[in-house]
Write a structure and sequence with these properties.
This protein has 27 helices and 31 strands. It is an alpha+beta fold. Among the domains are: 188 residues, tricorn interacting facor f3 domain (Immunoglobulin-like); 104 residues, Immunoglobulin-like; 133 residues, Peptidase M1, alanyl aminopeptidase, C-terminal domain (Zincin-like fold). The chain is globular. The two termini are 22 Å apart.
């Protein structure tokens, strides 16, 4: 199959065990950028459970075959072809040695072995190892690896690979070598090597059992001062996994390496985790509070993969969420514990809110589009396209539901049984589900549908109060509404939905809950198990008609349909004891008003906002009993992208007009309050990335952002300039620059240009900071006489811009196309023409990155007719010119 041909569809139902197994792999690398020689010696045997008599089919891409030897003797019965190597006439057990060559310096895909900033790196998940050597490159083939690296010592003084360093030494001609052994079986996607001029921060710690471990964070020399936070995050991750799940680090050392050219966030290769610099480098001058939090979360995520992904891995790529959904859940719990421990629910809720915001904005949209698929997909053309929000974030919600059903202790019992049964194996999502079920004595057959059904479920709620009988009935109905065709095709029956709720009395206090048939009340939050298409749950001894608090802590990834009044939402916003639902009430209230404003804007009608809505937001803004972090989240309006998802036919210009009107109305009506909050939460002293300090900065900078919306933003410009000049951290400096860019929409470009120029001069040698500089300009509002696509076009020609670096491409092109909808969806179609040009250009360099950008138009059918037509034209242009499987799958599904 060539990349230009119609690619075959790979189906889960067609899974077959490999015909051969590999027990051990000895790899020898002679590292030269232009032509690296790889000697691969494997011990293979026929799989007794595989197809009998099969020839050996090894995967290989972009390789030059040099030689093949069977048991040390040249073997002529082989054939190299476009996608691999066929070897015939083989005994039942044998040693196969293959010598091949690759060209790391020419590898712009950043998959396999490649060169970045003069150093060697690898990225093998999902199918990059086949670009390094011919191999059974599939996750269910696990082997022990020994790796020998040889290279010029002056150019590549550091030589790293998986596992433990067992030998190193000098070679003739100024070269040297290092030999690494990984004692644990692993699939090829977990292989890694790094070679180059790097330095490390080191720590030695003792594990819970008393064993000494060496921890290293490797970076380029000029970045060493930005590694302390990553190291601290790694130590915290190790300690947390020991305490929460009883899991220790199993190798003598654990290494993190940062690289600036990387398609993903990071990669959990066994013992040698390779990271995008974005998720390692952080100090106060160059990283925001969000960056610090992301570093902690991603370091945790990749470390936790050591057990949930490495020690137990996937049988096939359809089971990707087995490791990713589970590990996202683990990193979410880790971050929540770092923020609020296991007792401060209000602090933990801040993390929960952030996660659900991302899920609803991006994963719910994915569920409604042409790329909709179950958590465990049934088919794919290119596996790289299925590293999705559904697999990761919805997969994490599925795992969270086990904990909601069984509690922390029950979930831990299930995890313990999972490790006991499957350590060292490649398994399936069903194996995980059965371990949780057996450990808790439950039949979870119905729960399997969460893995096999696509789409976002909806739960409609009806309530009825019988004052004479003091009974309150809650009827839950589950359905999918108007979902994508792919979702309709996968539905086989009702789900098991854990639905947490509480009841709130007129005094704002929670009502003790006793279900019909129970002898006494038990708590004020109950998890109802919705297993039928419709079920009624009746609470007794309810003294007065309560207000329901529905789906507390977002106990399942569903949309709740209940017709609250504005007054009821305001009441919940003021009184709900569940922090998540308190935030949710404000978001519902804002969404309702914004959608009404959008309809009026689309019809060119006057816009107005009820004073009661302003009053509800004012109460949150001025309520000092609420944490600053929570108030900041509660006062951020739903995004334009999220609002568009709530409409049958999206009108980006009207959505933007409505949201900007509401922001300006809140800014104007509460101007004095915003100024007071800004002053109250401005702190002096050294920067601290603690949750408390982060919350104060977040609320202060939100106040500054609202003040920048005023018709006369003189206060915002004064405060932003002062903050920019005095800032001792990137959070405040970037927020000040963003406020100046917003104020410049009404005050003129001169309000922001000096700070923009100064920002670049200060940080031109800090790539991650310059990424922020590009992104802020791509996401600014613009106006009729200043289109942001023109700004982006000029920035494309900037000497610091390059398409070859994924971070830089994402900072400018993705920021414009995915995070500036009002400008991207210009009525003249200029945004779509720009998108098409960039997808085609990226496809020739890096298909994985191109495919991510291609998804910006997958929901094109949901826009107004004029926009739909221009989007279709852009999609067809891309479909006619791109060659990779990655992009073709996305655009062909969008057009189908």
């Amino acid at each position: 199959m060539s990349d230009t041909a119609s690619p075959a569809v790979i189906r889960r139902a067609d899974y077959a065990q490999p015909a051969f197994l590999i027990d051990s792999v000895a790899l020898e690398f002679d590292l030269v950028p232009e032509r690296t020689i790889v000697k691969n010696t494997m011990r293979l045997r026929r799989n007794p459970d595989g197809a009998p008599g099969a020839r050996l089919e090894l995967m290989g891409e972009a390789l030059e075959l040099v030689s093949v030897a069977l048991n040390g003797v040249p073997h002529a019965e082989h054939r190299a072809h476009e996608h691999g190597l066929t070897v015939e006439n083989l005994p039942d057990a044998f040693e196969l040695t293959i010598v091949s060559a690759c060209q790391p310096a020419e590898n712009t895909t950043l998959s396999g072995l490649y060169v970045s900033s003069g150093n060697f790196f690898t990225q093998c998940e999902a199918e990059g190892f086949r670009r390094i050597t011919y191999f059974l490159d599939r996750p269910d083939v696990m082997a022990i690896y020994t790796v020998t690296l040889r290279a010029d010592k002056a150019a590549y003084p550091v030589l790293l690979s998986n596992g433990n360093l067992v030998e190193e030494g000098e070679l003739p001609d100024g070269r040297h070598f290092a030999k690494w052994e990984d004692p644990f079986k692993k699939p090829s996607y977990l292989f890694a090597l790094v070679a180059g001029k790097l330095v490390a921060i080191e720590e030695r710690i003792r594990s819970g059992s008393g064993k000494e471990k060496l921890l290293q964070v490797w970076v380029e020399p000029h970045d060493l001062d930005k590694t302390r936070h990553a190291m601290d995050s790694l130590i915290n991750s190790i300690r947390w996994d020991e305490a929460r799940f009883g899991l220790e680090l199993d190798l003598d050392r654990f290494m993190i390496v940062a690289v600036s050219d990387f398609n993903m966030g990071a990669m959990e290769n066994k013992g040698l985790n390779i990271f995008n610099t974005k998720y390692v480098l952080a100090n106060p001058e160059t990283a925001t509070d969000t960056d610090f939090a992301n570093v902690e979360a991603v370091v945790g995520h990749e470390y936790f993969h050591n057990w949930t992904g490495n020690r137990i891995t996937c049988r096939d790529w359809f089971q990707l969420s087995l490791k990713e959904g589970l590990t996202v859940f683990r990193d979410q719990e880790f971050s929540a514990d770092m923020q609020g421990g296991d007792t401060d629910e209000a602090a933990r809720a801040v993390k929960r809110i952030e996660d659900v915001r991302a899920l609803r904005q991006f994963q719910f949209a994915e569920d409604a589009g042409p790329m909709a698929h179950p958590v465990r997909p049934e088919s794919y053309v290119e596996i790289n396209n299925f590293y999705t929000m559904t697999v990761y974030e919805k997969g994490a919600e599925v795992v969270r539901m086990y904990q909601t059903l069984f509690g922390r202790d029950g979930f831990r019992r299930g995890m313990d049984l999972y490790f006991k049964r499957h350590d060292g194996q490649a398994v399936t999502c069903d194996d995980f589900r059965l371990a949780l079920a057996d450990a808790n004595g439950r039949d979870l057959t119905q729960f399997e549908r969460w893995y096999s059904q696509a789409g976002t479920p909806r739960v409609s709620v009806r309530t009825a109060y019988d004052s004479a009988q003091r009974r309150y009935a809650v009827t839950l109905t589950q359905h999918y509404g108007d979902c994508a065709p792919a979702a309709r095709e996968t539905q086989t029956g009702p789900l098991l939905i854990p639905f947490a709720l509480g009841l709130i009395g007129r005094d704002g206090r929670d009502v003790p809950l006793r279900l019909e048939g129970e002898t006494q009340a038990a708590g004020t939050t109950r998890v109802l198990e919705l297993t039928e298409a419709e079920q009624t749950f009746t609470f007794v001894d309810v003294a007065e008609a309560p207000l329901p608090s529905l789906l507390r802590n977002f106990s399942a990834p569903v949309v709740v349909e209940y017709d609250y009044t504005n007054d009821e939402l305001a009441f919940l916003l003021a009184h709900d004891s569940d922090p998540f639902n308190r935030w949710e009430a404000g978001q519902r209230l804002a969404t309702r008003e914004l959608l009404a404003l959008t309809a009026r804007a689309a019809a060119s009608e006057p816009l107005s906002l009820d004073d009661s809505v302003v009053a509800a937001f004012a109460r949150v803004l001025t309520d000092e009993s609420l944490s600053p972090a929570f108030r900041e989240l509660a006062l951020i309006l739903p995004s334009e992208a999220y609002l568009a998802e709530q409409m049958a036919e999206s009108n980006p210009a009207a959505v933007h007009a409505a949201r900007q009107f509401m922001r300006k109305r809140l800014a104007t009506a509460l101007r004095a309050e915003w100024l007071a909050v800004y002053e109250r939460h401005t702190a002096s002293g050294p920067y601290e990335p603690t949750p408390k300090a982060t919350g104060h900065r977040a609320l202060k900078n939100l106040a500054l952002a609202y003040l920048a919306e005023l018709d006369d933003p003189v206060d915002a410009i004064r405060l932003a300039n002062a903050q920019y000049d005095a800032a001792n951290n990137m959070t405040d400096r970037a927020a000040a620059l963003a406020a100046l860019l917003a104020a410049a929409t009404t005050a003129g470009a001169a309000a922001a240009q000096p700070a923009l120029d100064d920002f670049y001069r200060r940080f031109e040698n800090e790539p991650l900071v310059i990424d922020k500089w590009f992104a802020m300009q791509a996401m600014q509002r613009g106006s009729l006489d200043r289109r942001i696509i023109d700004v982006v076009g000029k920035l494309m020609a900037h000497p610091a811009f390059t398409l070859r670096n994924p971070n830089r491409a994402r900072s400018l092109i993705f920021s414009f196309c995915t995070h500036n909808p009002a400008q991207f969806h210009a009525e003249d179609g200029s945004g779509y023409a720009f998108w098409a040009e960039q997808v085609i250009a990226l496809d020739a360099l890096n298909p994985q990155v191109a495919a991510r950008l291609a998804r910006s138009l997958e929901l094109w059918r949901r826009y107004t007719p004029a926009l739909r037509e221009r989007m279709r034209e852009a999609l067809e242009r891309v479909a006619s010119q791109v060659k990779s499987r990655d992009v073709r799958e996305v655009v062909e599904k969008a057009l189908a």
